[in-house]
Amino acid sequence: MEELTEAITAAEFHPHQCNVLVYSSSKGTIRLCDMRSSALCDRHAKFFEVPEDPSSRSFFSEIISSISDVKFSHSGWYMMTRDYLSV
Q1: How far apart are CA 71 and CA 39, in angstroms?
Q2: What is the mean pLDDT of residues 56-82?
Q3: What sections of the protein cross the membrane (predicted)?
């Protein structure tokens, strides 16, 4: 447990394609996985990340940038994410 550097904070399956999974992490990243290629989800199909400005990094940066929730829209065309400061 001491080697833990990142944790999954939210996960959801696509509303119409049961093989598509999206999950977010404590480092502020979102990974979209296609479980037809691998049920393990250790490799992602699409990776979303906002680059962090190194000059504005502080003690609380990782906590603030952590994605707290991710949801698909009812149509499945869009994803909505939330961190601690914005939607």
Answers
A1: 20
A2: 86
A3: none
- Asked if 44 contacts 29 with a C-beta cutoff of 8 angstroms, the reply is no
Structure tokens at 59: 């003690």
- Is 81 in a helix, a strand, or coil? strand
Longest dimension (CA), the chain: 42
- Tell me phi and psi for residue 82, to 5 degrees: -140, 130
Sign of CA dihedral 15, 19, 22, 25: positive
Q: What tokens does 73 get?
A: 């829209």
Tokens 């999206």, located at residue: 22
Tokens read off for 21: 């999974």
65 in Cβ contact with 81 (< 8 Å): no
Q: Which residue has the higher pLDDT, 19 or 53?
A: 19
pLDDT digits (tens, 9 = 90+) for 17-39: 999 999 999 888 899 999 888 77
